[in-house]
């Protein structure tokens, strides 16, 4: 429905959920309730994380904090190591910034560097975009990994920690190393895509910018590993559990960022809230797609199809982590959306995990890696890259599509290595 008939992913999920419920024998009186329950179960755990994450990302970008981080990286690494400056900038900015927003906001910074130093656009730009892509696919609080954490009953902080370990080599290989082979591709970025940069005096300080962008990671990591140092039954346990809840973490970070990047710099509260309203509009459809995937998952659970799928898959001698990756990769190839691929895979692979005793944190990463595979003409990111960098279809496949496949494969390798070590 999504790839052939071009029907909106949210509507596709709802329609298929109804058809599946009827076809699989679920009583008509229970279908609507199952759909509502599935939507509520998923959205209830995610709406705070995703909306506050979008608000934080918008504030980081609009306040000039993103621009400041890029400048700090450029100054630190210099022209000789400019690629690494772009990678680290993309990684830091990619943590709080939703991918589509990050792409549109970061590409003009890439073009500024390209024009200023007269460098190859693909060689400089692809490493940053690889970092953005990997954070989008692997790391909470991005929508798909955050939703997978909930559906697989994983630990948000531990998934983030493992995700960092897996993400770094994937970015290095898919970004700077792979980009060295692309210097012969001539890209002529359109001048109209160059954004107006804020003057230096209007930017926030370097430490405030870095601190705000990285604070979600720091708090989630702190809340995940501090309990390991406490004695059993410690009175601090419930307090840390509350503070470390991802929703509370994101709300706390947003409040701190509102002050540091907004109020303290003279912005009016009305203007900041208007910015947040715009940010929520950017992720509204993502929220709907996630709720739709929850509806389909619940139909599969209530009809017993999930158990049947699990029993069938148990007969296949394939490592569950690899199977999750493969299913996500095939769905990504079919529908184009990494988010849809990850969420659809969740309903299929979840029943198999319990019997196989699969680490849910690693399964989040395996499915996330698979969801980045095989980007082509049905992926909006493919066209964003092609049009912004003014490339031919052939060169877009040789650069963007191959980069996405490399990070997906590297992600799988990283997950399987972690699985062998843990």
Automatic annotation (TrEMBL):
Transmembrane annotation, as ranges: 6-28, 40-61, 81-114, 121-139, 159-179, 207-227, 239-262, 283-302, 322-350, 362-385, 397-421
Keywords: Cell membrane, Membrane, Transmembrane, Transmembrane helix, Transport
Residue ranges the record marks as coiled coil: none
InterPro entries with a match to the protein in the record: Glcn_transporter
Compartments (UniProt record): Cell membrane
GO molecular function annotation: gluconate transmembrane transporter activity
Main location class: membrane
Keyword flag Transmembrane: yes
Gene Ontology CC annotations of this record: plasma membrane
Family statement drawn from the similarity comment of this UniProt entry: Belongs to the GntP permease family.
Protein name in the entry: Idonate transporter
Gene: gntP
